[in-house]
Give the backbone structure.
Amino acid sequence: MKITVTVNDTPYTRDVEPRMLLAYFLREELGLTGTHVGCDSSSCGVCVVALDGDRAVKSCTMFAVQADGHEITTVEGLEQGGNLHPLQQGFWDQHGLQCGYCTPGMLMTSYVLLKHQPKPSESEIREAIAGNLCRCTGYQNIVKAVQQAATAGGAS
Amino acid sequence: MFPAPFEYRRAQSIDDALAALAKFGDDARVLAGGQSLIPAMRYRLARPAVLVDINAIDDLNYLRERDGFLTIGAIARDYALETAALVRERYPLLADTSAVVADPVVRQMGTVVGSLCHNDPAGDWPVTALAARAELTVRGSKGARTVAIDNFLVDSFTTSVGNGEMAVEVRFPTPAAHTAGSFHKIERKVGDFATASAAARITLAQDGTIAESGVAIGAVGPTALRVAAAEKLLTGAKPSKDLIRAAAREAEKLADPTPDNRGSAEFKKAMAGVLVARALTTAFERLGVGGLK
């Protein structure tokens, strides 16, 4: 089935089987390996991408054909013109990662959070990332990173 | 693992979806949020030959009060309920539920109607729908029919939606004056299946007795279960701690859980009672009847 998906503002047309999951479409068809695959069953959140800019979705639990005609933002789409997104800067400055495996999902979930709530409270941040597992940090520095990004106007 | 191969149809209208469902019958499944169906397909627990994607049907994306009901279209997301002021202010039972389904990312895709159609024994919405006495509109090529939630939930992962039909809307009665409800569940972690869950809804009469009630439990039987014996005890009675305990005991008696790594059958039965007690206590507190003796 022929589909056209706009990923990070670039339209891509590909012929895919309907059963191809969006995470694998991004990684294997488009070579955008920033989106990770972890549990592969919608539990861990490392594969989160933004759908049409305002919805965080687990790309292991959505078919690529569903994204036909839609816009996807992946972690590769955060940086603009060589400048880190405020969220990425926050994760850097606050040591919001150790192994980095959960980071793309954390960033994209937080990216959509800040679109809806530009100034989230600490508990709202913790609640928003409840579907994203991190086994390294204990979450503290991730929360600080999102707080820094919110202060820096990360919703833009 | 990838699902088995299937044919994908994107429906542009309800009629378009119904035509595809009529054509493929039992081989077709409706794809709404897909947050239960896609994992089930990946584990090969479901192998539909055709998926009819209804996400492009904007006519099914609504959440509004009409004719004494909160009506929710088939592609309205959990997130829409969770963030709606209307739900937060007037439907506390639904607000409670929408905030704890799966996890916050899954709720941005998952739908209320889809959860009811999936009818997972551990699902949250079937429990709340029973306590709230919801009803659904099921459409087929011959027209629409209204199905009460008790008749909709047939067995584990089975509803009364027939081949060629689809559920297009669920309706929750707008609470009468002096009504409150609450949903409680125990889960090992956010996003896990419920270990046990309970929903309660209470309407108080002028004299402070209970005019009407709804009580249901989840994850402790083949489907969500209405605790009719508890409703019978509650209706007409005056709120008290003993009454809550008696209602909880009825939930324990009715619960018939399967032991797994979330707990033994004995534990889950006990939790069904505990959660009914908590749900009733919260509902009473919301009605200004706190600190019961």
Remarks:
- The two ends of chain A are 35 Å apart (CA to CA).
- The mean pLDDT of chain A is 96.
- The longest helix of chain A spans residues 103-116.
